[in-house]
Structure formats: C-alpha cells, structure tokens
Design goal:
This protein is mainly alpha-helical. The protein is built from eleven helices and four strands. It starts with a helix and ends with a helix.
Length: 307
C-alpha cells in the first residue's frame, strides 16, 4: 500500500508543480482573430483571407461611481472581438487612453493630446500596411475621440495605400431602427456618459466589473442656458444637440463651466434613473451593432474582394 501511494505521489507531482507554476490571475481563453493572442504565422494565414483590420479607439476615464475606468476600452474591444467571430477581420487594439481632458478632475482618468493619439494610430496603421493589411475599420467607443478618429481615417486615406472608415458611421445604415414612441409616451430623459445606456452595455459585456450597489442617479449642475436645452437634446433635436455638445464637456480651463466635475456630482452625465439599466438592454444593443457591422463588412468584401 505504501509503495502504491509513493508511486501515485510521484506521478501527481509534475501536475501539482505545473499548477503551482501557472499564473493564478490568468483566465483568458484564446480568441479568434485577436492580434495579441495570435502568433505571426496565424496573422500571416489570416491575411490570405482578409485585408481588413478593426482598430478600437477608446479611453481610460471615469465612468461614474459604478462603472470601471476602462469602460470604453473594454466595451469597444469586446464589440470588435464579437464582430471578428462572425466574419474574418483582424482585431488590433493599439491604445487604451484617449482624449478625456474634461474628466481629469476625477481620479484615474488618463488623457492624451489629440496629436499624440492620431500619430500613434497612424503609425500603427502603417505597420499593418507593411504586413499586407489595407482596409481599416476604426471603432470609436468614446465621444471625445470622434474628430480625432475621423482625422486618423483621413490621414490613412490621403497618405497611405490603406483605406479607412469609421465603423460606427459605416454600420448605421444596417442597424435596426429604434421603435417609434407615441405622443402619449413620457418625454425622453437625458442619458449620456455613465448613464443607463452605458451601464446596460457594461452589465452585458463586463458584468463582474459593474457595482450597482453604489450606483446612483446624478444631480446635474449645468449652466442655465444648457439646462434649458436639455429637453430638446434628449428629444434628439439636431441643432440643440450640436451646439450643446460643442459647449458641454470641456476642460475647466476653458472657462465654459462644463467640465464633468462642474456638471455632475457622480460623474454620470444624465438624469435618468440608473436602476433602469439592464443586461438585456445591453445585449440587444450590442448584438444590433455587431450584426450591423458584420453586414457592412460583408458588403465591403463584395464590393472589393480581398487581394
């Protein structure tokens, strides 16, 4: 019996040592078409089937009391990965931070200058072009990056062999129209950064990083003229929305009184009750975007087959 136990112990020892030598925090599974998980032969093989790359453009910034600093990065990258499971396209994350000056009064936010961001993404695209990739889908998941993202796309189109589009804009025609509200329905409620929409997305995409126990509806302190615009902005009035966003969410140093800390006590830029968020809503909206993006990509492949 002792001999049997001794032999068993010898057989199990290598497995026990291997288990002890494995990083206890590592729990990722290899994801198809995700550049950080791939070897160079796998990238080379993918290139024989596609010349398309999704590049998320994100941020590291405060997302209220209940969402992680990495919300935009994690959710944008997550959508890109889901797209790449349905159609062959490389997913290549480049940076985590974006342009978030107006959130800097909240701990943890990291912001980069616009010229830094665009130069890094442009040089990354140049690298991928050298490996044979030609079409770039820039997936912006942070509103503060919208003009930077368009500039990156324009530089790629104007200065390289590559062709670039902003994926959100490209997918829009393929999205399911929102249900029409009736005249008797309650008026829409302002819901932006860190609000019900973003919380729902995170409850679906990264549920273990959302702490609904500390979530609470924000108290907004907007400049009076912006406060008066809120009903029109919430209703989708294009002119009100344009001028509202041109002035709102700007660094304290501009003197506009619209940095995030000046306008909200929690970091949420919205007045909708946070408890209305749900993983089901997040699932519906995520799947709608992913399916629309796949339709656009497949259509582009039809119009210009891979070379």
């Amino acid at each position: 019996m002792r001999k049997l136990l001794f032999v068993t112990a010898l057989l199990l020892a290598p497995a026990a040592l291997a288990a002890q030598a494995t990083n206890p925090l590592w729990n990722e599974q290899k994801i198809k078409n995700y550049l950080p998980h791939m070897s160079w032969p796998e990238v080379q093989d993918l290139r024989t089937r596609t010349d398309m790359v999704i590049i998320p453009v994100a941020s590291l910034e405060q997302h209220a009391l209940h969402l992680p600093i990495g919300t935009d990065f994690l959710n944008g990258l997550g959508r890109a990965k889901l797209i790449a499971q349905k159609t062959d396209v490389l997913v290549a994350p480049i940076l985590m931070p974006g342009n978030s000056l107006y959130h800097m009064e909240f701990a943890g936010t990291i912001t980069l200058k616009a010229e830094t961001i665009q130069q890094v993404y442009f040089e990354a695209a140049q690298s991928l072009i050298r490996h044979g990739f030609r079409r770039f889908l820039l997936l912006n998941s942070h509103g503060g990056n919208q003009y930077i993202t368009k500039y990156i796309a324009d530089r790629i189109n104007q200065e390289t062999e590559g062709i670039a589009v902003e994926l959100g804009e490209a997918a829009d025609p393929y999205r399911t129209p929102a249900p029409q509200t009736t005249s008797s329905a309650a008026p829409p409620v302002f819901d932006r950064h860190g609000g019900v929409g973003e919380t729902s997305a995170s409850l679906y995409m990264t549920p273990n990083l959302v702490n609904m126990n500390v979530a609470k509806t924000a108290t907004l302190t907007l400049p009076e003229h912006l406060q008066r615009m809120l009903p029109q902005v919430a209703a989708g009035d294009p002119t009100a929305s344009l001028v509202f966003l041109a002035e709102g969410l700007k660094p304290r140093e501009t003197g506009k009184g619209t940095s995030t800390r000046e306008m909200t006590n929690t970091g949420t830029w919205g007045s909708r009750e946070i408890t209305q968020a749900s993983a089901e809503r997040g699932r519906r909206e995520t799947e709608d975007f992913v399916n629309a993006a796949v339709k656009f990509i497949e259509r582009w492949k039809e119009l210009r087959p891979v070379r």
